[in-house]
Predict the structure.
Amino acid sequence: MSKHDENFSGGPQFRLGIDLGGTKTEVVVLDDNFQPVYRKRVATPSHNYGEILDLITDLVDDAKKSLQARPTVGIGTPGAISPVSGFQRNSNTTCMNGEAFKTDIERRLKSEVKIENDANCFTLSEALTGAGKGYSVVFGVILGTGTGGGIVVNQKLLSGPNAIAGEWGHNPLPWKTEADGSTICYCGKEGCIETFISGSSLARNFEKRNAVILSSEEIVHGASNGEKNCELAMELYFDQLARALAHVINILDPDAIVLGGGMSNIEGIYQQIPPRLADYVFSDCVEAPILPALHGDASGVFGAAML
């Protein structure tokens, strides 16, 4: 029996996942125990749809050749596929919007492909084998270039009939104050949660208030060094994030909240947010822990493979 035939003869069942991000794309292949046996990461040609299809095709072909096997394929993408049209929508990699991505990539790969929102993939991974393992209802959050969310209930991903379950970043920031200001989101609405608590939004809003250009990393570092404007920016950021998460808790009341994305590496989040939630949650207690992702920036690609 060749290694190529193992997936069809009761041998190892390889699962290939791709995390299609705005700046990088990662591929991983997991074995039966969800352990990675192949990984690769490359830059994303985020402004050219045809080049994205070429990239994914090449990544899958290279993995198959390396393993000499035919794994199942799952892809985590920004946005989601419309249940009505079958086209990609709501993606901040805007060249994908309006494209028949599932049809196009299945034609390229000549096989079935499971596709889910990247935040859903992140949440699935963390609920099954990560920080949310053992909790019944897990709300997963990506705080990166954008802001996404996903929901897993009893180890099952909840997508919803409209494929938007967990799309928390495109609700308005609750309990807004004058200090928040407002920004038009790429989705066309004003004041979306994403325009306040994503990494790019922290930097953009800091520039609007202070006429100084700093990256989100520089703002966080400046706050830790006692720079006043950076401290004020982070104080506001923590309050905005607390309000946004309280909104979710009031609706879903999850057993655990798991954070991923670059902003989730800010240690202050895990000290600053829990005590602030009491001001906004409609309860006399807030039991759900806020946890950093166990798999780090690999959560999304692991979850895509688990589809």
